[in-house]
Amino acid sequence: xxxxxxxxxxEILKHEGGFVNHPRxxxxxTNLGVxxxxxxxxxxxxxxxxxxxxxxxxxxxxxxxxxxxxxxxCSDMPPALALCVFDFGVNAGPARAARxxxxxxxxxxxxxxxxxxxxxxxxxxxxxxxxxxxxxxQQSRRDYYHQLxxxxxxxxxxxxxxxxxxxxxxxxxx
Length: 174
Fold this sequence. Notes:
Chitosanase, subunit A, domain 1, 2% strand
């Protein structure tokens, strides 16, 4: 049985899709959700369009694990909530994903998940349940996307992604 990271990464890659280079996307050239700048930072070398097109799930998985999953301590969360935090981190940055979780669970909003945030998350989940944590978190994502200046261009896709990730996350709850 795949672990929570593998399951979550598969869900995220479904939404990230393949190679794109949309002129209105501030991320620029992207494949499997990895921007050219992120890939160059990860590998320490320049990447051509051919390099970007050649990315595979196997090649990008370690980057996703280190820079998005591990940085927000997703392994310390219930898998359903971890999927949502991981997905938002990939789409809008891990610090923002952490701050939104911290706001919901009543932890200090420093954008860094650590022992205090994990303890607050566990207390919140014990009191309110994983499903409520997922629903509130995903609603805060919807609110975030609505205020972005590129919402008219990308908003429908973002909201569809939030809805689909929420559905997938809720199915993960035993």
